[in-house]
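User: Mind token order:
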Amino acid sequence: MQARRYDTIARRIGQLARMLGPFSLMFLSGCSAHGLSRQFLILRPAGPLSAADLRFTILDVAVMLGIIIPTAIITTYFLLRYRKTNTNATYDPHWSHSNLIELVVWAIPLLTVAMLGYESYKGTYAVNPYDPRMINTKTASGVNSRHAPLNVDVITTDWQWLFIYPKQHIATANELVIPRKTPVVFHMTSATVVNDFFIPNLAGMIDIMPGMRTKQVLVADKLGQYKGYSANFSGAGFSWMGFKTHVVGAAGFRRWTQAIQKSPQHMDYAQFNEFAKPTTNVDGKTYAFSHVHARLFDQVIKGVLDGKVYTTRMPPPGAP
């Protein structure tokens, strides 16, 4: 009697799942190929590092699906074949052990872990920003190796980005411009809290910590504009803490540099302290600075280590 009740419940659940299955497609009605491609930026790599990240991600997913799918199929098969109501299944009360099953049960997980461990090792060193060989050996063919890498110092505040080009003596806020097929070496720090530097099309996430130096390296293979994000929650203005990344040709980068060098706005540590006051950049404003102090990056780190704090401006009592 109880077994019949369980069979009835299972049958009803199956019927309900078949009825509701087609309705789940309604959730995809707002999606389009263009919209999905814009959301899943990591699936459209524009540089060798992001391509490596995607390749290892696909490999990991494929290996796990190679385990999950057969396991689901085998589980379903056993549930159907050896259910109580199936009188055609062989019943062997004396069976207790199988060397073949033991081999399969232990060998597959061990081989999977070994393969994933080896690929993780390769992937970690393939995109390791602290490995100098990465610029020469881990980048795409055609990288402009005749010129020295472009150095960019990155400072995060609440809630903006400052990109300093030390050799060019310029800086931009909330906008990054880099030349195509030229290695770009970032030295990053935060004036406030931990943030994550993330350009899905070009480079993976890496932490930026206050009072510390973090390094990242990337090469862009394709011209275009890409989105950069802070991938670590940092307060009220986090949702608008993005930056535009422009990949331009070598000649275009020179022209852009010359234009920024004519900017009337300058940047030293005193002006940085004004810039670093908590600001929610809702409109996505960008700024350009010329005559940037040569040791501004080091001064920011020293200020943080000395206890410099940029307090959030609070409305006065009784303000709406």
In short: The mean pLDDT is 83. The chain has two domains: 45-83+98-127, 144-305. Residues 11 and 168 are 72 Å apart (CA to CA).
